[in-house]
Write a structure and sequence with these properties.
The complex is a heterodimer of chains A (219) and B (434). Chain A is mainly α. Chain A is 72% helix and 0% strand. Chain A is built from nine helices and no strands. The radius of gyration of chain A is 20 Å and the shape is globular. Chain B is globular and about 75 Å long. Chain B is 50% helix and 8% strand. In chain B, β7, α20 and β8 form a beta-alpha-beta unit. In chain B, α1 runs antiparallel to α8, α6 packs across α8 and α17 packs across α18. Chain B has a four-stranded parallel β-sheet. A four-stranded parallel β-sheet of chain B has the order 6-5-7-8, sandwiched between helices. The chains are: A mainly alpha (219), B alpha/beta (434). At the A-B interface, α1, α3, α6 and α9 of A face α2, α7 and α16 of B.
Chain lengths: 219, 434
């Protein structure tokens, strides 16, 4: 079995299995924890809880330009690498082919030069995020090993994918295999670290949205 | 007047015996339900909350970052509910952790909720800190003066020693001195009014002002010597048994007089606890509405039952966090000021985004936090200066006391007033002409 066969086969299959099981387990463990029932009457005009939860999930996707605080660099940079990652994962032709092979659905791809540009910006953005994390006293205090592992496992697929598609490193099958293995590592780590926030964000935003809407608080 | 209990010596977390330490760790586990678990797992450690927190902004100390205050409860959650924890590989909350975080959990969080606005994951840090305080308190930890305030509330009826007897004496005195009828222990009334002992002991004219406004509106109201104290230091100190006692007293008094409305005076946390947790603490729905005094008076004004002569001072309004940002009653104070305060101006930011006074969440009661509170007040002084106001009014006696003390510390040249007192000074009483 070649390295590429291993990457495309057992490595990716096991990683996807860990990803699916891990995500399901973590979400289920949250959903099945005890919930408290709120006996206080809602403020007049409050939305039903589920509607308020959904509203809060989407409302917070839009940047708020209010003077509440928060760091402008972190806010802007966060949008840049999240959107960049989404464009690369869902807009690059080989990725769409892979998704079609798994789920049978696909969509038109973005031009490859555009993907290169976005990948460059996203890599720069992730490097800037690391720089900020290592230089800010607040972020240094808050950071754990999870932050650095998650960062590394996010940037590695970008770097290896960039190297593979631009043929910066040869032979191509080997660098492609390394790219796929880096994706497998990302997927396998996903449920166990902060990357899981991609799913938990719906729970935490929804919970707060429902609670504060019940009070009539306008966030 | 009876003397309030003095504070017992503070306990050092490092000296906890095994039973006390176990009480803290067990309490963490008992409190971690779906909401807290989601919040504990959600933090991406982006640090956005730092610049939204008045304590961090005032001190510049990274330890004051709200997300850092989540660490003990998140650690307890991981230990109990993650595979690494099951294998014994996730670290356990230690005595050193409790010692390190005690000041951060009690002294440097007013549970104002400003960090939640800016958090991309919408983590409700306030509820996490409230739960963490309960775990600390289960081991007997927490500032001695905060614990004493809770003990006083349970044993003497109020944190500042306002027993039922003191209440009767002071109401009689205030009523006589000001020639304002103040009903106490009426058999039946539509509205039960409560006090914050800060008002009764430090700002007694606020009690007179409330009575004057209630009388002017023609409300059928009373105080009750069986349930009068609205502040809840049981909640603030993390002691749910005392929190329940305080809520129960008010609920029983309201039920006894057949009140349709229980009115919380100018106190943000008192409103937050009774309105948004009272029924949950008792485990039953309440047969009366709970309104903050600004909500109730705004309602009376909208109904045309209260009218005011104009107030011409250059005035701004400080939003108490638990009434506005976390209470949903931001607009009511403004409805009261509308058409009354002719020279009103907002601070920036105001309303739901307002900066906290620095003394909410029981922090006002902690003597050791005074220096930090004074630093926080510099934010407010700057806001007021930029607004051009000469007077800042608020609808929370705790905010007022916090800011009064800091104003004295900095020799601030502006005036601090109670919204209710200003309204009472300008109310048009029945039989008088504007």
């Amino acid at each position: 079995m070649s390295l590429l066969d291993f990457a495309r086969g057992p490595a990716l299959q096991i990683a996807i299995g860990i990803f699916c099981f891990g995500v399901a387990w973590r979400l289920a463990s949250l959903i099945f924890m005890p919930h408290t029932r709120d006996l206080t009457p809602a403020r007049a005009g409050a939305l039903p809880g589920p509607a308020a939860a959904v509203r809060e999930v989407f409302r917070r996707m839009w940047p708020e330009m209010h003077p509440t605080g928060g760091n402008l660099f972190t806010t802007v940079n966060g949008y840049v690498f999240h959107i960049g990652l989404a464009i690369i994962v869902f807009g690059f032709a080989p990725h769409i082919l892979f998704i079609r092979s798994l789920f049978g659905v696909g969509w038109p791809n973005l031009p490859t030069p555009m993907i290169y540009l976005v990948a460059g910006i996203t890599i720069a953005s992730l490097l800037a995020a690391l720089g900020k994390r290592m230089s800010s006293p607040v972020l240094r205090l808050l950071s754990t090993a999870d932050d650095y592992i998650s960062w590394l496992l996010t940037i590695l697929p970008l770097l290896t994918g960039f190297a593979a598609t631009s043929h910066l490193i040869e032979p191509y099958p080997d660098i492609l295999a390394i790219h796929i293995i880096s994706v497998a590592a990302f997927l396998a780590w996903f449920p166990f670290g902060k990357l899981m926030h991609a799913f938990i964000v719906f729970v935490s935003r929804g919970t707060t949205g429902a609670h504060l809407n019940h009070r009539g608080a306008q966030l | 007047m009876s003397e309030a209990q003095t504070a017992p010596p503070a306990k050092d977390a490092k000296d906890l015996n095994d039973a006390e330490f176990a009480a803290a760790t067990n309490k963490f586990l008992a409190l971690i339900g779906a909401d807290i678990a989601a919040y504990a797992e959600a933090c991406v450690r982006c640090g956005q909350c730092a610049e939204a927190c008045h304590f961090h902004e005032a001190s510049g100390d990274p330890k004051h970052t709200p997300a850092y205050k989540l660490v003990p409860i998140a650690k307890a959650h991981r230990r109990a509910h993650s595979p690494l924890g099951w294998l014994g590989l996730a670290p356990q909350v230690s005595r050193d952790d409790l010692a390190h975080w005690e000041e951060l959990i009690f002294d440097t969080c007013t549970m104002c909720g400003r960090c939640t606005i800016v958090c991309p994951m919408a983590i409700d840090v306030s509820s996490m800190v409230a739960a963490t305080r309960q775990a600390f308190a289960a081991a007997g930890l927490g500032p001695a003066d905060l614990r004493a305030a809770a003990d006083n509330s349970r044993d003497r009826g109020s944190p500042l020693g306002v027993t039922a007897e003191v209440l009767r004496d002071r109401i009689e005195w205030l009523s006589d001195d000001n020639d304002v009828p103040i009903p106490l222990d009426k058999e039946k009334a539509d509205v039960l009014l409560t006090i914050s002992s800060i008002e009764m002991m430090k700002y007694p004219q606020s009690v007179v002002a409330m009575a004057k406004l209630m009388n002017a509106a023609g409300a059928n109201w009373t105080f009750s010597s069986e349930g009068y104290e609205s502040t809840n230091f049981g909640f603030l100190s993390g002691r749910p048994d005392i929190a329940k006692t305080m809520v129960e007293r008010m609920a029983k008094a309201a039920e006894k007089v057949g009140a349709k409305i229980l009115v919380i005076p100018e106190c943000g946390h008192a409103f937050g606890v009774m309105r948004w947790s009272g029924a949950n603490i008792l485990g039953r729905t309440l047969p009366f509405a709970v309104l903050h005094i600004t909500e109730y008076l705004a309602q009376l004004k909208r109904e045309g039952k209260l009218k005011f002569n104009p107030y011409d001072a250059k005035v701004t309004y400080h939003d108490p966090c638990q009434i506005s940002r976390r209470g949903g009653a931001t607009q009511d104070a403004r409805d009261l000021l509308d058409g009354f305060a002719t020279n009103f101006r907002e601070m920036t930011p105001a309303g739901n985004l307002n900066w906290c006074c620095g003394g909410g969440g029981g922090v006002q009661a902690m003597a050791r936090a005074a220096d930090l509170r004074h630093k926080v007040f510099q934010i407010k002084m700057d806001q007021v200066a930029k607004s051009g106001a000469d007077v800042m009014v608020s609808s929370c006696a705790n905010c007022r006391l916090t800011m009064d003390e800091s104003a004295g510390h900095w020799h601030w040249d502006k005036k601090l007033e109670s919204l209710i007192e200003v309204l009472a000074d300008h109310v048009i009483e029945q039989g008088t002409t504007p």
